[in-house]
Amino acid sequence: MAIKFIILAAAVLAICRCSAIPAVQAGPTGPAIPAPLALPIAAVDVTGYDPHPQYSYAYDVQDSLTGDAKSQHETRNGDVVSGSYSLIEADGTRRIVEYTADPVNGFNAVVRREPIAVVKPVVQVTPPLPPPLIYHS
Question: Are residues 63 and 78 in contact, defined by beta-carbon separation less than 8 angstroms?
């Protein structure tokens, strides 16, 4: 019986004497990302501003291998932009869009569709083969 009392007393003393073990941090103690350096603010160059911008560009694609046919041209004179583009749609018609944009009327587009004389051949697609049968013995 004395052994049980000694073990109980030792357990009570161990519980009373113990203290919380501080948790160990498993990583760096400092900030992960260093603070950014303050850079001087770049001055804005306003001398390159054009109050009346003007440009004009165009491109044309005629790819007989893929059947891709499209074109576009656009012109800007100040705040007025005008141009057009065309492309071949999936049903074989040519879509032509002519547009203008200005501060007074906004953006306006006129869309036309024209049939194409050349009919593109339809490519036959073969269905995929079924997967092979695997037998286990």
Answer: no
- Minimal CA–CA distance to 75: which of 50, 97, 100, 107? 100
The secondary structure element, H or E, covering residue 94 is strand 93-102
Structure tokens at 123: 């490519």
Rounded Cα distance, 28 and 17, in Å: 32
Cα 10 to Cα 17: distance, rounded to the nearest angstrom: 10
Whether pTM > 0.70 for this model: the answer is no
Q: Are 5 and 13 in contact (CB under 8 A)?
A: no
Tens digits of pLDDT across the chain (137 residues): 788 878 888 877 777 666 666 666 666 666 667 667 777 777 777 777 788 899 999 999 998 888 888 999 999 999 999 999 999 888 888 999 999 999 999 999 999 999 876 656 767 888 888 888 888 76
Under 8 Å CB-to-CB from 122, ≥6 apart: which residues? none
